[in-house]
Give the backbone structure.
Amino acid sequence: MQLITVTQPTEEPVSYQEAKDYLRLGLDQEQTLIESYITSAREFCEKYQNKTYLTTVYKYVTDDVAFPIVLPNPPIQSVEKIEFQKRDGTITEWDNTNYVVDTSGRFGVIRPAESYELPENLASVNTLQITYTAGNTSTAEVSERVKNAIKLLVSHWYENRVPVSMNTMTYNIQFTVNALLDQDRVMPV
């Protein structure tokens, strides 16, 4: 199974101004660095929680064609297309009348329609390719716990630009970030 990011989110859950205020910086200094920390912190938190915070387009590629298919990194907004790779390498889009997408629960689930047909002569590698959109549609939908975890990481990285020794501070940052993120962590199915 591969999960490929097709389109990154166009905004971050924490803005530069919010991070700057959290860091108690008066001047606009090192904006590019701080913005890169924000992106890195979001990516770290998303990976830890197995979630997507803001609208992102993914391509899920697998060799297995077994239903139901549970899509990773919820919340799922929509499925754009499902494609199959044939033995000759051609990609065929599966008609959307062959499947049903359920985004009402915690996970996005794809189930076959009552009457469906799989394409013939399927490849044994990268057989199924699903393009879908996941994440919240606005920063207001991202929990404050997540935003605080991102700010903590940004602050830690900004203040400690080189590796730090394993002392109490390092453990406290890790413990605090994990404590904030564990509450809504999604365990892969």
Summary: The two ends are 13 Å apart (CA to CA). The longest strand covers residues 76-85.
